[in-house]
C-alpha cells in the first residue's frame, strides 16, 4: 500500500510516516523512490503506537523494534511479555526519579 493509504490507516500525516521511515522505525520496501507498505509494516506501526502510548522515547522504540527484527521471539506474546517487562522497569525508574526530586524539595 502507498504512504497515503498507510498514514490514513493510522490517522497520521504522511510526513510523520516518512519521519519514522527516516529514523529506521519503519522499514518498508522502496520501489522507484516510493514506499510500499505491507502487513509487516502495519504490525510494526501498531507496535510503535503501543510503545508510544507507554511513553517510550523514539530511541527506546528503535531499540525494541530492532531487537524484534533480529530476535528469535517465537510469538507476539513473547514480544509483548518483553515489552511489559521494559514498561515495568520504566515505571520503576520514573518513581525513583520522582522520589529523588521530592527529597530535594523537602
Descriptors for this entry?
two-stranded antiparallel ribbon; mainly alpha; 6% strand; Multidrug-efflux Transporter Regulator, Chain: A, Domain 2; elongated; 5 helices; 106 residues
Produce the secondary structure layout.
Layout (H helix, E strand, L loop, with lengths): L2 H8 L3 H9 L6 E3 L2 E3 L2 H15 L4 H13 L5 H30 L1
Antiparallel strand pairs: 1-2
Helix pairs in contact: 1-2
Structural description of this entry:
It is a single chain. With 106 residues, this protein is mainly alpha-helical. The protein has one domain (3-105): Multidrug-efflux Transporter Regulator, Chain: A, Domain 2, CATH 1.10.1660.10. The chain is built from 5 helices and 2 strands, in the order ααββααα. Helix 1 (3-10) crosses helix 2 (14-22). The protein is elongated and about 60 Å long. It starts with a helix and ends with a helix.
What is shown here, in short?
The chain has 106 residues and is mainly α. It is built from five helices and two strands.
Number of strands: 2
Radius of gyration from CA coordinates: 17 Å
**Roughly what fraction of the amino acids lie in strands?**
5-15%
Poorly predicted regions are none
Strand order of the largest sheet: 1-2
Amino acid at each position: 500500500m502507498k504512504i497515503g493509504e498507510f498514514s490514513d490507516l493510522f490517522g497520521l500525516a504522511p510526513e510523520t510516516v516518512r519521519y519514522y521511515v527516516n529514523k529506521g522505525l519503519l522499514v518498508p520496501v522502496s520501489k522507484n523512490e516510493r514506499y510500499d507498505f505491507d502487513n509487516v509494516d502495519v504490525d510494526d506501526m501498531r507496535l510503535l503506537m503501543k510503545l508510544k502510548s507507554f511513553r517510550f522515547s523514539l530511541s527506546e522504540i528503535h531499540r525494541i523494534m530492532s531487537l524484534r527484527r533480529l530476535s528469535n521471539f517465537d510469538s507476539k506474546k513473547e514480544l509483548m511479555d518483553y515489552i511489559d517487562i521494559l514498561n515495568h522497569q520504566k515505571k520503576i525508574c520514573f518513581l525513583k526519579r520522582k522520589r529523588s526530586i521530592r527529597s530535594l524539595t523537602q
